[in-house]
Amino acid sequence: MKPHWYDPIVKFWTRHISLTIDEAPHRDHLALERTFLGYLRTSLQFAMTGVIIAQLFTLQRSINPSPTFGFHKLGTPLAAIFVGLAILVLLIGAFRVWKQQNAMVRGKIYSGGWEISTIMLLSLTLTLALFGLVLAVDMLKEL
Q1: Would 10 be classed as within a structural domain?
Q2: How far apart are CA 38 and CA 41, in angstroms?
Q3: Which positions fall inside the DUF202 domain (predicted)?
């Protein structure tokens, strides 16, 4: 049989995209789908937090706002950081699911990994930074 130009595409598609699985491991694939939905929910939470920050920080405008440091000035960059983190969490989740799916096709499984620790550290750092900024702006308003 003569090789075609699209043979690498067909090989990639049949191995990574269109999987046919036996009856027994259906629950493994469904569990993997639920895991991706968990990453999607986490990503959606960060995106909603970014929108809420943008709205609430814009509303918190004082009579004499600080031109350099205040709720109004910090709202847009903080919201952009949270939305960027939402995109990053979704990409990390998609990468992890794709890696797990490839391992399951070969009869292996990955447990743990850098993805979960990375998301936890990023969200903890961002939450603590947000808390510190809100306290700093609030203390500056009282002075």
Answers
A1: no
A2: 5
A3: 27-102
